[in-house]
Write a structure and sequence with these properties.
The chain has 169 residues and is an alpha+beta fold. It is built from three helices and ten strands. The chain has helices at 11-28, 50-61, 93-108, and strands spanning 2-7, 31-32, 40-47, 68-72, 74-78, 83-87, 121-126, 141-145, 149-156, 159-167. The strands form three sheets. The protein has a four-stranded antiparallel beta sheet. Bound molecules: adenosine-2'-monophosphate. Adenosine-2'-monophosphate is lined by residues 4, 41, 44, 123, 153, 160.
């Protein structure tokens, strides 16, 4: 099964991110991420065996992150899969520390694939062919986070779907 660790936006922020996704979709085209699927990926684990997944669930349920507040204030795009996202202009020290600590734990559990850099972003569109984000409205959002979520990703005909496997304490 394909797994990843993420932060899920609280309901009000989810709705505001969804509204930005609608605006971006109207300008940039592509496929809009559904409100239910909006997230910030902290660690992508790829394919994981059932026994490893059980170990991950137990580990995550014992994690107690201090939490933080992430400020989202910019648009961005990744050319290759045509991704349009929102994120922060400057690195967020709490998220950077969280991602590093998670990968330390994941590596102790035997997982590889730690990326050489971490650029926190919330994907709003995929497969967009108009990646110019200059004309989009300013972003000014705050994301208060605390709990981490382990998600399973499925690929369906109309795009990815996610299932929650576990959350941190
Ligand atoms: P992103 O869309 O926010 O960039 C589940 O598949 C999540 O893991 C996706 O939302 C994606 O985050 C991230 N992801 C998918 N494939 C990946 C890969 N090969 N390397 C790193 N992150 C990936």
């Amino acid at each position: 099964m394909r797994l990843f660790l993420a932060l899920e936006p609280p309901p009000e922020l989810r709705a505001r991110l969804g509204a930005l996704a609608d605006i971006a979709r109207a300008r940039c085209g592509g496929r809009r991420v559904s409100d239910a699927s909006l997230h910030l990926t902290l660690a992508f684990l790829g394919e994981v065996e059932a026994a490893q997944a059980e170990a991950l669930v137990a580990w995550l349920q014992g994690e107690t992150p201090a939490g933080g507040e992430w400020h989202l204030d910019c648009w961005g795009a990744f050319r290759r899969p045509g991704i349009v996202w929102v994120g922060g202009r400057t690195p967020d020290p709490a998220l950077t520390a969280l991602q590093a600590r998670l990968w330390d734990g994941l590596e102790r559990l035997g997982h590889g694939g730690r990326p050489s850099r971490f650029m926190p972003h919330v994907t709003l569109l995929r497969r967009s062919r108009h990646l110019s984000t200059e004309a989009l409205p300013p972003v000014e959002l705050a994301w208060r986070w605390r709990r981490l979520t382990l998600l399973r990703s499925f690929t369906l005909d109309d795009g990815p779907r996610y299932e929650v496997l576990a959350r941190s304490a």
